[in-house]
């Protein structure tokens, strides 16, 4: 996607608008599958929560992906997009037994991450194949918001509880067909990943009827200059070799599964906003845009740094700006950012706006959620309309407040 095309999209569809590049998504998908071409069978389940637009899901289906889902609504979205239930894995956390049973009945692969549900589900449905989510207690990254494999994490069943898992499996005679881990969204180096994988292999040996081992995700993509990117090619080479070797030891060819979100869609997304006001203060120059953390919360929630370009004045002299939003809350997108000179009415583009951006958007300040556009074969397709005032009022129930009726105490009202 050229910046000139992005500018045209902002003109045609208005701002703020999320724009996704289908080609970029395909490139990432193909990179991942190419890196693991040597394994017996690879399954890439796209993590729906990263970007859940139905057209994006359909694109994933066309590429050959399955889906990783965390709620029954994501499962329903996947089914609506045309996925078979068998190509959907359900990896929820802390959801009710009923929700898991409903999804299992639909035919999706169930992934259970706590002993209580494992025991209840296994007792009631011993024949339904179940995958178990293990917490290998590997600290990937260092930010406890996004490192879910460590000891205090709420995710997965601790590897120290394997004896307990085995007792439940034996008592219920349930069918464990997969082992899973997802160590968080910030695996910094391949060695950490391989280390966690060894724990998963050790665990896998306890189960005789496995069909797949799911290594989750956590692939890192660069957000700003100097950021580390997971070297997928190197990981592919090393993990494939080790995986094939494990399958030999195990005595059966297994499927290697991943469930990337960010890796597939982050860099494919751009968020376009309009500059409403340029405001000089005693200490800085604010560029105030027609958005806020209601549309893009990552910078405030995680401290994420999204690169920002001025599409309207790419050759302008670079100056320092604080880019902030228009909602009544501190909503700083960027501090002291060097951007080519900004004028009111300019269109700015935020990079890496594919993953966890639109899907985390809200109506805070009663603002509309933005439109979404997918560029496919060079053409811009609207894949979600901007909300309207009807959307804001939808589901709200108005009460008719009438003046309180005063009860009469006089006897005149009583008819005998
Ligand atoms: C969120 C999530 C993913 C995707 O993580 P990314 O960092 O976006 O690749 C994968 N698996 C599970 C279980 C998740 O919750």
SSE-based structural type:
alpha/beta
Number of helices: 12
The name of the CATH topology of the largest domain is TIM Barrel
Write down the secondary-structure element order.
Answer: HEHEHEHEHEHEEHEHEHEHEEHEEEEEEH
Q: What is the radius of gyration computed over CA atoms, rounded to a whole number of angstroms? A: 25 Å
How many structural domains does the protein architecture include? 2
The CATH H-level superfamily of the largest domain is Alanine racemase
CATH architecture of the largest domain: Alpha-Beta Barrel
General form: globular
What proportion strand?
15-25%
Helix content estimate: 25-40%
If you average the pLDDT, what whole number results?
93
Question: What's the count of strands?
Answer: 18
Could you list the spans in which at least 5 consecutive residues all have pLDDT below 50?
143-147
Distinct ligand kinds: pyridoxal-5'-phosphate
Largest sheet: 9 strands, mixed
């Amino acid at each position: 996607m050229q910046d000139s095309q992005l500018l045209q999209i902002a003109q045609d569809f208005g701002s703020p608008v999320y724009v996704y590049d289908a080609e970029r998504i395909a490139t990432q998908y193909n990179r991942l599958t190419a890196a693991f071409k040597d394994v017996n069978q690879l399954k890439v389940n796209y993590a729906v929560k990263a970007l859940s637009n139905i057209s994006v899901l359909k694109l994933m289906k066309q590429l050959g992906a399955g889906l990783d889902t965390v709620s029954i609504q994501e499962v329903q979205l996947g089914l609506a997009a045309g996925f078979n239930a068998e190509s959907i894995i359900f990896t929820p956390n802390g959801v009710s037994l009923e929700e898991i049973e409903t999804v299992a009945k639909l035919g999706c692969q169930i992934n259970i991450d706590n002993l209580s549900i494992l025991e209840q589900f296994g007792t009631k449905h011993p024949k339904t194949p179940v995958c178990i989510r293990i917490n290998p207690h590997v600290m990937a990254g260092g930010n406890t918001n996004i490192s879910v494999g460590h000891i205090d994490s709420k995710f997965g069943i601790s590897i120290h509880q394997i004896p307990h898992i085995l007792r439940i499996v034996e008592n219920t005679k349930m069918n464990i067909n997969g082992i899973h881990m997802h160590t968080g969204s910030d695996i910094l180096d391949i060695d950490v990943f391989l280390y966690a994988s060894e724990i998963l292999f050790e665990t896998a040996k306890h189960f005789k009827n496995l069909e797949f081992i799911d290594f989750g995700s956590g692939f890192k993509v660069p957000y700003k200059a100097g950021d580390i990117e997971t070297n997928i090619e190197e990981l592919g080479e090393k993990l494939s070799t080790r995986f094939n070797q494990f399958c030999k030891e195990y005595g059966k060819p297994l499927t290697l599964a991943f469930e990337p979100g960010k890796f597939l869609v982050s860099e494919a997304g751009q968020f376009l906003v309009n500059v409403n006001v340029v405001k000089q203060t005693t200490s800085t120059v604010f560029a105030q845009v027609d958005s806020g953390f209601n549309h893009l919360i990552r910078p405030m929630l995680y401290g994420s740094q999204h690169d920002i370009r001025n599409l309207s004045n790419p050759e302008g002299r670079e100056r320092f700006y604080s880019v902030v939003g228009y909602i009544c809350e501190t909503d700083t997108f960027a501090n002291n950012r060097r951007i080519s000179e900004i004028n009111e009415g300019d269109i700015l583009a935020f990079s890496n706006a594919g993953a966890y951006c639109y899907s985390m958007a809200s109506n805070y300040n009663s603002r509309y959620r933005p439109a979404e556009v997918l560029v496919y074969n060079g053409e811009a397709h609207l894949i979600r309309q901007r909300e309207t005032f009807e959307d804001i009022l939808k589901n709200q129930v108005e009460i008719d407040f009438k003046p309180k009726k005063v009860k009469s105490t006089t006897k005149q009202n009583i008819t005998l």
